[in-house]
Amino acid sequence: MDDSFKAEGKYKYIDKGEGPVIILLHGLFGALSNYKDVFDSFSDRYRVIIPLLPIYSLPIISTNVKNLAKYLENFMKLKNLKDVTLLGNSLGGHVALYYMMKNPDKVKNMILTGSSGLYENTMGSSFPRREDKVFIKNKVAETFYDPINATDELVEECYNIVNDRAQLIRILAIAKSAIRHNMKKEVPKMNVPTLLIWGKDDTITPPVVAEEFHSLFPNSELHWIDKCGHAAMMERPKEFNEILSKWLDVQYGI
Does residue 3 have a pLDDT over 90? Predict the structure, then answer.
């Protein structure tokens, strides 16, 4: 993955390839590297963009789903992007949904994987043992079906985030915002083709969430990945990319 950032004003992003535009939106604890396999697999025939969402740099009072979606809106205006495919994991899916609600004419397709927006089991409203690295490691491991994916690097990254008071406050603000911005009434109005790729063993946004999304969207497909948790594109990248590739090829006639 070519992870060299481009920067324009307040925006940092990775941008590679030519063709139909796919925007990848990361989650609350996610990093751009979470999409490494998607980025590497699709940037040869699509233009793949990963904006760095300002989860930890917005003013605390403005740290919410609405303003993250507004940030995406302004970024897309700056880059003159339209008819895009939005792909969001976890919080990134929620941002995609909120953006879609406000800008339905700018989105051609949407892909959600482990998305919040209806319901999720968060890490909790507080972190009473946030200085305990074993506790954090166990929480990170819950993201995956196979805890071996909770690498030391991931654990260290999450540990540093939750032990930074300013960042922790933003995490809690986002968690509360996600609850406030429930999308159940808005999803049935979203008519774009939508792909749901879900880990059957996701404990954060469990399978029932995927089933509810599928029942609410007017035009959706739901695909399951066995022995897979909340971050399917990381844990089972081959299966994830196969599902995504076949679906996108149909949408774009490739």
Answer: no
